[in-house]
Amino acid sequence: MTVAAIEQAPPIAKTASTGGLFSVATLGVVPFFIFALLFLIVPTCMLMVGAFQDKAGNPTLGNFVELLNRPDLLASYWISIKISVASAVGGAIIGFFIAHAVVSGVLPSWLRPAVMTFSGVASNFAGVPLAFAFVATVGRVGLVTVLLRDWLGINIYAHGFNLLSFWGLTLTYLYFQIPLMVLILVPALDGMKREWREACAILGGSAYHYWRYVGVPVLWPSIMGATLLLFANAFGAVATAYALTGSSLNIVTIQLFAQIRGDVLNDPNLGFALAFGMIVVTCLSNGAYIWLRSRGERWLR
Fold first, then answer.
1. What are the residue boundaries of the ABC transmembrane type-1 domain, all occurrences included (predicted)?
2. Range with the lowest mean pLDDT among 91-100, 237-246, 254-263?
3. pTM to 2 decimals?
4. Under DSSP, is residue 213 helix (H, G, I), strand (E, B) or coil?
5. CA–CA distances in Å: residue 166 to residues 8, 83, 142, 169
């Protein structure tokens, strides 16, 4: 076939399954958009509207005024932020070393898929099952607590540890924070080019110089972004905290639950104002994560 014949040939029509607004591929994502609309967008919009209304439905800023005049509610934000920071930093540090260990190739080859599979499961393990698991493990009569007391003579509760406390909840959050950090950092570590390390070695640099001048600067946006994502993940957690501590720990998600669903402290519009503040904190954290991730991906393409 000549070039002229090819140029004169009629264009191939696109099939319905390969393009167009209403293609088969587009229909495949319709359930996702419906789910996001019903369970994310619409509830968030209703929450934001309710935060600026009183019980009669009239526009008001009284909910935020009451929120600012309630020291217990403001303290709940501060406690939630501290728990989120502690679990995010702890999860980031431990998760980084685990991710580096499985990517470095020093460990047996079968260990990486095992760690990644466990991380995928553990990062989504939360709520009542996770709370029960920690009570059964490090509760006052938990398995580890009893073994340490009977075999080694160490009573962790006599030394000040309490599962139903700040550090107890932080330890529980680490169970899903560390695996989440591993899942996020492994692709970033995989993107580190071997040529960079070889070039550093050719120029006389040591492992310290490589991480000081190459590894850490390249990975820093990914590490910081992942840490912010862990912060947002812990800040919005409610089921694990409520199942583990009940109302003994004054965190904002439990206060929100009490205002919306409680019998004594029932004030839904004040709860909406609490949730609005959480949305602001979470949006700032996720926005910074997206920005840092985009900076990190420039080096790892």
1. 77-291
2. 254-263
3. 0.84
4. helix
5. 75, 7, 19, 5
